[in-house]
Amino acid sequence: MNIKILDHKDFEHVLSCSDPETGLEAIIAIHDTTLGPSLGGTRMWQYPNKEAALKDVLRLARGMTFKAAAAGLNVGGGKAVIIGDTKKDKSEQMLRMYGKFIDTLEGQYITAEDVGTTQNDMDVIRKTTEYVVGISGGSGDPSPFTAYGTYLGIKTAVKEVYGTDELSGKTIAVQGVGSVGYQLCKLLYQEGAQLVVSDLDNTKISKVKSEFEAQVVTTKEILEVECDVFAPCALGAVINDITINQLHCKIVAGSANNVLAEDKHGTILNELGILYIPDYVINAGGLINVADELTGYNEFSVMQRIRNIPLTIKKILALAKAQHISTNAAADQFVQDRLSSKSVKGGEAL
Fold first, then answer.
1. For residues 54 and 60, what is the distance between their CA atoms, to the nearest angstrom?
2. Would you state the pLDDT for residue 344?
3. Which one of 9, 55, 67, 79 is the catalytic residue?
4. Residue of 193, 209, 195, 199 whose CA lies nearest to 176
5. What is the pLDDT of residue 141?
6. In the prediction, which pLDDT does 342 show?
7. Which stretches does DSSP call E strand in the chain?
């Protein structure tokens, strides 16, 4: 196992690891531990090159700092990526070696599942490091909790725009119906929403179409759907210079991380009259769930915290209105205020 330190401004630690014997190629980024040890999932994806993987893990790690702070958690922000095809490259030997990589950080980074990894993978990683949550017998699969928080956030946004949080008759376009997207579709369908969905995986699409009477469109068409809510639940940078002018919705609110390619796109959405609910606020349910393992898991406490997500969203919307700024700028300010207060107060919980 070869570990290399990568120097990146504004990050506490960025390390890459390679192990030719198991095929492991991974990067761990620790952004900020002001509030506590960094906690964030491990994503496995077939990136085109290491530079793309590095760019992604840095964005994700920073997002985790903001997500934890906005949710009121006493953990910091970190993230990891494994470069590879989950169907071809993943093996028990690779995951065990990856666990050893995590262990070298001695608790500065704690992992959990993410895109391309599962609860079973976390169980394997747990064999070579204690710094992992979301395992069997622990908090379990975080997907339903992420979906539930996102669902509550969508209802909050709908009430802001339409004056009622009723979803019956509303058209919601869900981009990506994986673990979280599927659970979100289930909640939306149960409340009477009309679903339009897309995904690269035809098996997942068929299931959602069958169970929730969803209309299926291509991954390109989903951005152009006439809808009330566009819910991105796949990978990041969905809202960019090209796609932002293709939207035909009143609200952008979904479970994906790093929805905006750049901060300026939040400003543009605001100018277009589209309400954007910052991703790291609305999708914090999964993090809230796994973070609770660190102090002894209690599902009742987890659900109470997730039900506070709409309150945080309302505070951010009020701040955006008061200061005439975009919602993503308001969310960033909300987080920075907490990080600054925590630093000044020497670790006192807010």
1. 10
2. 43
3. 79
4. 199
5. 84
6. 64
7. 2-5, 13-19, 24-32, 38-39, 42-45, 76-83, 109-110, 171-175, 194-198, 215-216, 229-232, 251-252, 275-276
For position 343, what pLDDT does the model report? 56
| Neighbouring residues of 242: CB distance < 8 A, sequence distance ≥ 6 | none
What does the radius of gyration of the chain's CA atoms come to, in whole angstroms? 19
Mean pLDDT on 133-162:
94
* Token reading at 214: 């969803």
Q: Is 79 tagged catalytic? A: yes
Domain 2-63+78-125: CATH superfamily is Leucine Dehydrogenase, chain A, domain 1 (3.40.50.10860)
High-pLDDT (> 90) share of the chain, %: 91
Q: Between 3.40.50.150, 3.40.50.720, 3.40.50.2300, 3.40.50.10490, what CATH number should domain 143-286+295-337 receive?
A: 3.40.50.720
Helix (H, G, I), strand (E, B) or coil at 303: helix
User: Which pair of tokens denotes residue 171?
Assistant: 């058209």
What pLDDT sits at residue 347? 38
- Mean pLDDT calculated for residue range 242-249: 97
Residue 319 corresponds to which tokens in the numbers above? Answer: 């701040």
SS3 3: strand
